């Protein structure tokens, strides 16, 4: 039984042809399916540059909130209350960050 028979067209990794510079492909028609339009976006140099921005991560912030602040679950119920609770958690993170950076807040 060959489990990988249906996945013959799916490759992992890149080939030399993938790394060579090439012209941007022609834009698909306006009535093209979404998958074709998305494939075109990621095939153009501008689309690749824009998509690469997604690799920036904010996960360390969530790790700090979980580990250093100890916030692992919401105590309240309901979207409005959870939103307020998250605002307090984010504010405490930001104040802690400002303190660690040595920022002096001026009061009016």
Condensed summary:
By secondary structure, this protein is mainly α.
Task: Describe what this molecule looks like in 3D.
- The chain is mostly helical and about 110 residues long.
- About 50% of the residues lie in helices and about 0% in strands.
- It is built from 5 helices and no strands.
- Helix 2 (about 35-45) crosses helix 3.
- The longest helix has 23 residues, at about 80-100.
- The mean pLDDT is about 85.
N-C termini distance = 75 Å
- Give the percentage of residues in beta strands: under 5%
Mean pLDDT reading: 83
Biggest β-sheet strands, sense, barrel: none
The level of helicity is: 40-55%
Taking pLDDT < 50 over at least 5 consecutive residues as the criterion, the unreliable ranges are none
Radius of gyration: 23 Å
Annotation, overall tally of beta strands: 0
| Shape field | elongated
What class, by secondary structure content?
Answer: mainly alpha
What structural keywords apply?
mainly alpha; 0% strand; 5 helices; elongated; 108 residues
List the helices and strands and how they pair.
Blueprint: H1 16-19, H2 34-43, H3 45-52, H4 59-67, H5 79-101
Helix pairs in contact: 2-3
